[in-house]
Amino acid sequence: MVGGGLEIRELECFLVVAEELHFGRASERLYVSQSRVSQLIAALERRVGARLVERTSRRVALTPLGVDFRAALVPAYGALRAAVEEARAAARGMAGRLRIGFQAPWVGALMETVTDFQDRFPEVEVELAELPLSDPFGAVRRGEVDTAVVMLPVLEKDLVLGPVFSRQRHRLALSVRHPLAGVGAAGKLTAEDLATVPLISAAGPAPEYWREVQAPTRTPGGRPVPRGPVVRTLQEGLSLTAAGRGGMLLCGTTGEYHRRDDIVYLPVGDLPASALGLVWRRDHETARIREFARGLAERAGRARRVEGVERMAG
Known about the structure:
Elements: H1 8-20, H2 23-30, H3 34-48, E1 53-55, E2 60-62, H4 64-92, E3 96-102, H5 109-120, E4 124-130, H6 138-141, E5 147-151, E6 159-168, E7 171-175, H7 180-185, E8 199-202, H8 208-214, E9 227-231, H9 234-242, E10 248-250, H10 252-257, E11 263-267, E12 274-281, H11 287-313
Parallel strand pairs: 3-4, 3-5, 8-9
Antiparallel strand pairs: 1-2, 5-12, 6-12, 7-10, 7-11
GO molecular function: DNA binding; DNA-binding transcription factor activity
InterPro entries: LysR_HTH_N, LysR_subst-bd, WH-like_DNA-bd_sf, WH_DNA-bd_sf
Domain HTH lysR-type: 6-63
């Protein structure tokens, strides 16, 4: 039963009748007799205190109150069914598949979280998929992955932003032959220096606010930043960087992971820190996603505490 003495079966019967507008078809869908359908509708109408369904020998129709009642009931009933299904799934355990997409190198807290998760839930099959640089959110929206680790910022209303981790200074990737390579190595590179470097940026459906952080069009002082080539993958960008076609702003982890002799990764002192975050669809949150997010948050918090102690000791 639900609030006010209402029976779930009465609500379900009303919604089926409202959809079919035919007592015979409603009875077939509910696996009950037509007389039972009539009884359930009548009981609901007594509880509400007014007619919800008009029935004649020729047609079935909702009353104006019935139309309003259905509109209010559908989302609430859907949420109730989803809660019941989720409880059933939890009762059956965590068995299933968790598909994780990633844009950044699979290192640190992320790798440790996956290992911990697989140890705790061996019944879950974990799959990993690399996301294109040009489309951080597409695979999540299309259901190709359940959750994804992406570079911030994330301002998508249909996505949940979970744990944020790996906050590091932005690094500018440049060819070792670039005039700024020596300046940056001395620790003097600033965001205003970006005005002298064509920035390589991501193509594709990535939102404009996201691309602006990865490849800003102006320095903090307002100077325009020249546009470099547009790429779809990180490897394309790094190859063009090594060839001297421009520079790329990357998170610190990416720079450390993709070390190569023909590229230098220079910290940019006065840009906001880069960060990674775990995202998933707001309408597709599962127990597996929540457990993985919880484990990642714990790992990231532990890493931040260790870094804080090390900075104090230093």
